[in-house]
Amino acid sequence: MQHCTWVRDELGHCRRNVHIKRLNYPIHQASGGLQLSVDLSTAFDRVPRWALRRALQWAGADNDITRTIEELHEQCRYPTEHAGFQGVLCMKRGVRQGCTLAPLLFTIFTCFLADIIGQRTDRQWMLEHLTLYADDTHASWEIRHGRDLRFVEHSIQTIYAVFQEFGMCVNASKSVLVLGLHGSVCKNWTHQRLQTTKQGKFMHFGSPLLPLCIPVYSEMRYLGITASYGSLEVQTMKHRLRIAAGSRQRHEDELAQSRTEKEFVLTFEVHGGGILSLMWGFAQAAQEWKKAREEKKVFSSLRLTLFLAFLQEWQQHLEKMAQPEAQEGAIKLGVAQRNAQDQSAVILKR
């Protein structure tokens, strides 16, 4: 964030309006900044054994601890069963997923890589402008002179070379480069490397034998913020609001199911002992819903489940009433009730 605001202010001073001219700001041939986000594919699963050993030795771990960690990973096995296949897979690289030691080991490994990058570029730049957090890598550069652009090219090539040297799979096409440059030297430097295609803009930092093409965007997402050289505060707020709205939408159904259901009341009247069988059916439906809900097999609410059970019970009752035997019984029951009502009316008249 501090880098973005500095570059934004520097680019603002380069706009030669009346106020800037009156403040007598000098005109620079090269000014601004760049930032790069590197995409690593399956970083935790790709750490080689020899690279992990070197990282532990670099961190000062003694031989016994290093040997114990190596044996722990060498003995790791994954029982596998899929589509009729059963077997055991040996873990030949990477850190153990789910192990409490894995985050510490990968942190040591990334610190080791950062130190290697600092040795091959500039240690002070590495400490101030290079961030390695889990499998996310962010680098930034502040441009004050034309020679800074040569350092940018060298350090980008070094970052990708170090990752590949130590077994990481770097996806340059999914990396992001954000430019905020001003001045004639920067314009010529960008013109020599920038290429526009149907897929977008790309900057070339490699050679014909080892191509390195990085997509260029006006902003990037990094650790929950929108990094750019424009209104990054507003862009970050809008980005987080979109994430919050998406999270709310995903959890809306689950929240609706957890609310106390007081808005649904169903009243009906039954004769005889039919109420007992109906309530027993509701109780069974509720028990089955609870079991399926715990097993994550159903996501509808209990209210909807009981209403559907009532409709099914009603449908079965109507189907039974449509049978000829049931119709004859209903007619006889209706005649008997009518005779009983007539007899009651005669008694009342007397």
From TrEMBL:
Domain (Reverse transcriptase) ranges: 1-227
SUPFAM superfamilies tied to this protein: DNA/RNA polymerases
Pfam families per the UniProt record, alphabetical: RVT_1
Protein name according to UniProt: Reverse transcriptase domain-containing protein
Species this protein is from: Symbiodinium pilosum
